[in-house]
From TrEMBL:
Keywords, ordered alphabetically: Repeat
SUPFAM superfamilies: Rhodanese/Cell cycle control phosphatase
Molecular functions per Gene Ontology: thiosulfate-cyanide sulfurtransferase activity
Domain of life of the organism encoding this protein: Bacteria
Source organism of this protein record: Capsulimonas corticalis
Identification of the protein by name: Sulfurtransferase
Protease found in the keyword field: no
Reaction catalyzed: thiosulfate + hydrogen cyanide = thiocyanate + sulfite + 2 H(+)
Length: 299
């Protein structure tokens, strides 16, 4: 792949490399999925499984894990601060990039964090070795750093910056979610009270960052997509979706592949913003059939 022009090409590893090295013991594999159903059926041999719904968020607080919860999770899984970690997951790596984002927030050495390009989808499509056997590693002692919240956006921060020309908001949901036609994809339980998008946000569906096989597009193609949407050096760039997993995928692209170090993930996303009393919302409304509609701010 020769780096594909990425700012940090070393963050990605290819399925060929993993197939040749996963038995070496030089790193730990972690599969992060929305739940553990797919992992229970099959996964890369030796991979630890993390459940995004119950382990990578505090379900009571509807928040990311605390530092203490993070330490406990990783220590029990046999992960230490010195481990090189190779992450992958289902849904085109949505939840794996969320996990990557948390590892960076809690201070894991970035040179020891990798993502399998194409994730679980590509590994299975290539017919590579899988197992249903769950590995067991001796408990370790993981000590996270104080969280770096500079990588995380919060609702009050966005509210204060609305209309700021130095802020670029990227709504990475589907076009129907962006316009307010639907509040959430079919069958999803986490919803909001209203449909639409944050005022000033640009519609940049996450899918535009990947090729058919789930691997990332080249840096040239990624810049051609994001730069016309207002992504530029020195600007504050915040990605959001519905629950923060698709936007973590876009954050990964911006932060690692394109090198925008000021990129943030707003994991509260639409389930939070769309339920806040008094929060401004834009919604596309068709005024004349066939014209494409205009934007109106909803109270």
């Amino acid at each position: 792949m020769a780096g594909n022009g990425y700012a940090n090409p070393e963050v990605l590893v290819e399925t060929d490399w993993v197939a040749e090295t996963y038995k070496s013991g030089d790193y730990k594999l972690i599969e992060i999925d929305v739940d553990l159903d797919a992992y229970a059926q099959s996964h890369i041999p030796g991979a630890i499984g993390f459940n995004w719904q119950t382990e990578l968020e505090d379900t009571l607080r509807r928040d990311v894990p605390s530092k203490e919860q993070w330490n406990t999770l990783l220590s029990n899984a046999g992960i230490s601060n010195n481990d090189t970690l190779v992450l992958y997951g289902d849904n085109n790596n949505w939840f794996a990039t969320f996990g990557y984002w948390l590892f960076v927030i809690f201070g894991h050495d970035k040179s020891k964090l990798k993502l399998i390009n194409g994730g679980r989808k590509k590994w299975l499509a290539e017919g590579r070795e899988v197992t249903a056997e769950v590995p067991s590693y001796p408990a370790a002692s993981y000590t996270a750093s104080e969280p770096n919240w500079e990588l995380r956006a919060f609702r009050d921060e966005i509210l204060k910056k609305l209309g700021d020309p130095n802020l670029t908001l990227l709504d990475v949901r589907s076009p129907d979610e962006f316009t307010g036609k639907v509040i959430a994809p079919p069958g999803m339980t986490e919803t909001a009270q209203r449909g639409g998008h944050i005022p000033g946000a640009q519609s940049t569906p996450w899918l535009n960052a990947v090729k058919e096989d789930g691997t990332f597009k080249s840096a040239e193609d990624l810049r051609a997509f994001y730069e016309p949407k207002g992504v530029a050096e020195g600007k504050d760039v915040i990605a959001y979706c519905r629950i923060g997993e698709r936007s973590s995928h876009t954050w990964f692209v911006l932060y690692n592949l394109l090198g925008y170090e000021k990129a943030k993930n707003y994991d509260g996303s639409w389930t939070e913003w769309g339920s806040i009393i008094g929060a401004p919302i834009e919604r596309e409304v068709a005024t004349v059939a066939g014209t494409g509609g205009d934007l109106k701010v909803c109270p």
